[in-house]
Amino acid sequence: MSKLPTRAPDVTFHTRIRDESIGGDNPYRWEEVTTDQMFRGREVLVFSLPGAFTPTCSTYQLPDFERLHSAFFTKGLEDVYCVSVNDSFVMNKWAKDQGIKKVRMVPDGSGDFTKGMGMLVEKHNLGFGLRSWRYAAIIKDGEITKWFIEPGKENNCDDDPYGETDPVHILENI
């Protein structure tokens, strides 16, 4: 594996947030959120996964991070972010379908953050295109202080390992 970055990349995420003042059937507006806004002066956990609505991500990983959210706060973390190379529309719908209220969903539609983290992989063998390898990182004031990366990172991997990024494993190791 290539050398991992020690600092989170400077990226702007294009998000859609609910704004009741808009009214109508689609009360959402665009809002740009930067990594500086997310990380400056804070210690957070970022986890990333191959895609919204995929089996392991939807059955185990995202729901377990939501369920164990408060346990991460007892470890001193101030937020838990789920990043996926999906657009904001998909991430919002996935969060709604999963009943996510605590984990913050971050759409990395162009994969810029994921690429800057060194975790962008090809998943053409599954018809996904470019996606994130499954990983998690503790980020303190923009500095990456701890990594959790599934083994076997490679393009078009036939396997989808899940263990290092299981929230229980992470809690036991921070």
What do these coordinates show?
With 174 residues, the chain is an alpha/beta fold. The protein has a single domain, classed as Glutaredoxin. Helices cover 26% and strands 28% of the residues. The chain is built from six helices and nine strands, in the order ββαβααβαβαββββα. The strands form three sheets. Strands 5-4-3-8-9 form a five-stranded mixed beta sheet, with helices on one face. A two-stranded antiparallel ribbon has the order 1-2. Strands 6-7 form a two-stranded antiparallel ribbon. Strand 6 and strand 7 form a beta hairpin. The longest helix is centred in the middle third of the chain and has 13 residues. The radius of gyration is 15 Å and the shape is globular.
Radius of gyration: 15 Å
**How many β-strands, per DSSP?**
9
Distance between the termini: 23 Å
CATH names the topology as Glutaredoxin
CATH-scheme architecture: 3-Layer(aba) Sandwich
- Low-pLDDT regions: none
Output the CATH class name: Alpha Beta
Summarize the topology.
Elements: E1 12-18, E2 28-34, H1 35-39, E3 43-49, H2 55-67, H3 69-74, E4 80-84, H4 88-98, E5 104-107, H5 112-116, E6 120-122, E7 130-132, E8 135-140, E9 143-149, H6 167-172
Parallel strand pairs: 3-4, 4-5
Antiparallel strand pairs: 1-2, 3-8, 6-7, 8-9
